[in-house]
Amino acid sequence: MADEEKTGVDLDEQETASVEAEGEADGVETEEQSDDEKLMAKLEEAVEVDVEEIGALRKKLSITIPRTLIDDQMGDQLAELKREATIPGFRRGRAPLRLVEKRFGNDVGEEVGASLLSKGYLAATNKLELNTLGDPLIWAKIPEQISDESGMNKAAVVDRLVKLEEAIDHLHLPKEGDFSFSCEVELKPEFELPELEGIAVEKASQEVSEADVDDEVKRRMAFRGRYAPVEDGPIVEDDLVVGDLAVVVDGDTVKSEANAMLAARDQFYSGMQLTGLGDALVGKKAGDEVELEVTFPEDYETPERRGKTGTFGLQIADVKRLEIPELTEELLSELGYDDETDLRDTMKAALEQRQEGEVKEAMRQQITAHVLKGVDFALPEGLSQRQADAIVRRRMIEMYQAGMPETEISKQLDELRLRAVEQAAEDLKLFFVMDKIATEREISVSEDEMNGAIASIAGMQGKRFDRMRDELIKNDGISALYLRLRDGKILDALLEKAEITEK
Fold first, then answer.
1. Structure confidence by residue, pLDDT tens digits, 460-502
2. How many domains does the chain have?
3. Cα separations (Å) of 265 from 226, 248, 278?
4. What's the CA gap between 455 and 25, in Å, rounded?
5. How far apart are alpha carbons 495 and 490 in whole angstroms?
6. Which long-range contacts does 10-13 make (Cβ < 8 Å, 24+ apart)?
7. Which CATH number covers residue 371?
8. Does residue 231 sit in the same domain as residue 375?
9. Do 216 and 93 share a structural domain?
10. Strand partners of residue 159
11. Which tens digits make up the pLDDT trace of 226-264?
12. pTM score, two decimals?
């Protein structure tokens, strides 16, 4: 927005306002502190919203921000920049506003556009009094490389639902006229909580067997395992397979990857459910090729591929297998144990402590079942993949807290992703219930409690605290950990008021 046509701002009036503002030193700090609030108030009053029902608890919002408000924001930002900008040939704050706009207009336009996109959505939902679930998905035109009938890649622009962060890179303020965009939102349901006092709960007793200790020793040894190349022989379940893959739909290669790494089991890949991949790979060897039919889910990120069927092909190049070390005296010493008896005793004590936690978790689940049975409300007709992904992240945190090795976590997460959409309904329903209880009872998790949980997970995984925290952040596990800790506090509070019988 380097010229006057792009902003529509009356530069002479704006410069006059800027000079007057310089003389009003009093109150400047207050105005700066309330800029966001002022903008939100203006947006809520001026924004225009068309609403389209696209399912239970799901709406499409078509949002329009008037040009006058865009011009006001551009003018305010340029006037503020004028006071601070240093331009050769002028004293600080004395350069003509036209020159400031010519030099910095594009950057200011990008900043204002990003602000109006994020705040415009919030203003629209506030204006309509919508109780939204999470962030919106925004429609944007995204450049992609697609394959034509001859297999050549060509550039194309497709409409896609993307997260706000990605939409900011592709939606920009128009040179003139209003700023319009569309987004899709999910809404929280309205319901009443059941009676939460005196819930009937059974408490079970458990004993640790020698077979349990055997399994725990094997699990601990898996931490020391490593993947080694398989020189000969067929692929077995859970092997790591390396090869070139391609997904073909209607004769076009829509996805390809060289040296892709996939485990020999059913799993999700790039939003596609690879049911039957495990059976297709087991028994094969390097040099073989496998194919299976895939169907793109209804909430796939590229709308025109939703519901379509294609072919997933994998040319196997290498196979790797997890090797678990033998329990030798040297390894026992390295692990800090006197002998195998010392190791088994330690494992048994750890299992007994874990089973105490499992007994408590079983009691929590009874509380959860009671609460879920006592509420009734509609859920979105098509639960989004985002909600299924949230379930996977929560299960990942549970497995971290249980001390499972990375290889076992990876395997279980693959299996869980295949069931996550079906489980999403119950988990999402529970999320709403817990959120309402937490709000009504003012239950939250402190920063110290979060850090303590991360430190505990880091200890069980044999990692440094900062690396474990960074890994959780990277995998969107921090919010999942917060919700697990918060829900645990809620369930424990309800357990204190429950009627418990020994079983």
1. 778 899 998 998 888 778 888 999 899 999 999 999 999 999 8
2. 3
3. 18, 21, 4
4. 49
5. 9
6. 10/75, 11/97, 11/98, 11/101
7. 1.10.3120
8. no
9. no
10. 141
11. 899 998 889 999 899 999 999 999 888 988 999 999 999
12. 0.50
